[in-house]
Amino acid sequence: MRRRTVLTTAVLAVVAAPGTARAADPGPSVTARGTTLLDARAIYFVSYDGLVNNNSFQKNGLLTYQGHQYAAWYTAARNAVVARRALGATTWSAVTLAHTLKSDDSHNVISMGVSKTDGRLHLTMDSHSDGFFYVRSVAGLLDNPATTAWSSSVFGAVQTSLDGLALTSQFTYPQFIATPEGRLQLSYRAGISGNGRNALAEYDGSSWRALGEWSGSTGTYTSAHGSSTARNMYLHGIDYDVNGRLHAFFTWREQSNAVMCSGGGITNHDTGYVYSTDRGRTWRNDAGTVVGTTGTADTVSVTDGGLVVDPLDPDHSLMNQESQATDSAGRPHAIISYVPGRFGQCTTAYVADRVADGRAFHVRKNAAGGWQKTEIPVPLSSSQRTRLVLDRYDNAYAVLPYGRIAAASKGSGYTDWRLLYDGSGLNAFGEVVVDEWRVRADNVLSFLYQEKSAGTTPSALRVADFALPA
């Protein structure tokens, strides 16, 4: 039987110890600074209930480095584009890359990463359980942006490997992460939905190497309805904290529909958590026990103990790949969402039930080392994902579908969630892509969104900026 770590507080009635914030620390707030236009006619098609230009799990579709912000997307002509602007500027300068989107699949996002050791911008593009496309800039491009030319000539040829490193023929969900030393890691899934493994590669400033797979797809999971013998671990993110620890929240997706009460649901279950203290070479559960070693047969498995921090069966349309962040003390936080049991114990239509009754929850590790969970009292009114941001005072912000922003203060123990911005005027389709780096760079919450359209009619792609407490 799997051992579980259960949250120590009730979902709707959290009684938390007072926060450690100083009296002078402000609570959360957002001040709109306006929007800028990236593309008046970006490609638009709805696939898997999402858009290819703003799937919120992109890491990173929008990022800030050395006083400049970078964005990547596909145009109406299907061209891959990367653009930059100086922070505070109202116009972007775009460069068209030598790649066109190969299929109408919203999974085929563009993700960007920065290798701080050599100042390169890296991009992976256009993959869903098949081959990927990769391009990197010349060295030093990002270190001196004000004096460096910005044109297609600064990007190398588009490749189908990482400078000769092939990785896998079934590649999905690229996420770039910078290590504390300035190396660049690439997290990705090898395999397919319901039967895949998470893996890592690493760039040291001169070459890429595969670290290997670290989560497994085998083992038996049994629900109240039936069993499954294959799955994949969907990450809510993968992030280094201020102390150099690597954190990953996740949910499991089973391959067999036998585990669900209804075929109209989704097989996602449980919120799990692991961390690494050696740059992703080994993985530990919340108790500190090693549960997997990257690149070996001993990978993190559904049968390992101590992984689950919030148990939930597959009958509540739990979302995969939501979001996570770490606070100034290195403690992990996550947003998860599902249909709570008060609306019924069996979702029968994944999208419709989430639109009608879905709610987001803030899950975090507290100062005492326990796990707490609070419902965000704003209906999702969407099947899609929410992004989590923490400001310099560790106040929490949930960027909900349609660009709405809810927030809670650290001082309250994150119990005072309320809506700060209702998204009116944006006409956003649903999910947004948050610039995780900019919050740290200049205390601005910045996100990319695409306006609603119909069919395959292109629509505007924009970036919205909000000042956070100074």
How many strand segments? 32
pLDDT < 50 runs, ≥5 residues: 1-19
**What is the distance, rounded to the nearest whole angstrom, between the alpha carbons of the first and last residues?**
49 Å
Query: Structural class of the secondary elements?
Result: mainly beta
Global outline: globular
Largest sheet: 5 strands, antiparallel
Q: What is the residue-mean pLDDT, rounded to a whole number?
A: 94
The helix content is under 10%
Q: Which characteristics define this entry?
A:
470 residues, mainly beta, four-stranded antiparallel beta sheet, disordered N terminus
Provide a descriptive summary of the structure in words.
This protein has 470 residues and is mostly beta strands. The chain contains 2 helices and 32 strands. The radius of gyration is 21 Å and the shape is globular. The N terminus is likely disordered.
Topology:
Layout lengths: L30 E12 L19 E4 L2 E7 L4 E8 L6 E8 L9 E6 L4 E6 L7 E4 L34 E8 L5 E9 L2 E9 L4 E6 L7 E2 L4 E2 L2 E5 L3 E2 L5 E9 L13 E9 L5 E3 L5 E4 L14 E3 L12 E4 L5 E7 L11 H8 L1 E7 L5 E5 L11 E4 L5 E5 L3 E5 L9 E4 L11 E2 L1 H7 L1 E7 L8 E9 L3
Antiparallel strand pairs: 1-32, 2-3, 3-4, 4-5, 6-7, 7-8, 9-10, 10-11, 11-12, 13-14, 15-17, 16-17, 17-18, 18-21, 19-20, 22-23, 23-24, 24-25, 26-27, 27-28, 28-29, 30-31, 31-32
Would you summarize the structure shown here?
About 5% of the residues lie in helices and about 40% in strands. It has about 475 residues and is mainly beta.
